[in-house]
């Protein structure tokens, strides 16, 4: 069973950038479809981005498209989320997700989760 550990969160200003990392252990990253979700206070966990297992195809939510980039480094067994031009509405706990099936947009269908990392964007 894969274990996921996120890092890289923090407090930044509007327009700043952050790069989140998700380190995998107990399994090979390339064996899983991977993704990022986020959860703001009082809101449901929402899909942010996904990267497919074999081809590395990516897709994003409309709210982050053209600002965020998901990627992975198979040698380091790590996935990344580069976040540029951050906005206050990006404030949330960001979670790394993995599954042997494609990453669904509904968080309830995801098998493996990391513990989350807080991102706070102030205006």
Shape: globular
Overall number of strands: 11
Overall pLDDT level: 96
Order of helical and strand elements:
EEEEEEEEEEE
User: With helices defined by DSSP (H or I, 4 residues minimum), what is the helix count?
Assistant: 0
Radius of gyration: 13 Å
Structural class: mainly beta
Question: What's this, in brief?
Answer:
The chain has 123 residues and is mainly beta.
Give an overview in words:
- There is one protein chain.
- This protein has 123 residues and is an all-beta fold.
- It contains no helices and eleven strands.
- The strands form two sheets. Strands 2, 4, 5, 6, 9, 10 and 11 form a seven-stranded mixed β-sheet that branches.
- Strand 5 and strand 6 form a beta hairpin.
- It is globular and about 40 Å long.
- The mean pLDDT is 96.
Distinctive features:
single chain, 123 residues, mainly beta, four-stranded antiparallel beta sheet, globular
Protein topology:
Layout: E1 3-7, E2 10-13, E3 18-25, E4 33-39, E5 46-51, E6 58-60, E7 68-73, E8 78-83, E9 92-99, E10 112-113, E11 117-122
């Amino acid at each position: 069973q894969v274990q996921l550990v996120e890092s890289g969160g923090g407090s930044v200003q509007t327009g700043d950038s952050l790069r989140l990392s998700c380190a995998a252990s107990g399994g090979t990253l390339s064996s899983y479809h991977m993704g990022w979700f986020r959860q703001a206070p009082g809101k449901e966990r929402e899909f942010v981005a996904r990267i497919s297992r074999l081809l590395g195809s990516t897709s994003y939510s409309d709210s982050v498209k053209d600002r965020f980039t998901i990627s992975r480094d198979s040698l380091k067994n790590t996935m990344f989320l580069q976040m540029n031009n951050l906005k206050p509405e990006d404030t949330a706990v960001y979670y790394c997700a993995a599954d042997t099936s494609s990453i669904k947009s509904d968080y309830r269908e995801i098998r493996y989760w990391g513990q989350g990392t807080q991102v706070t964007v102030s205006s």
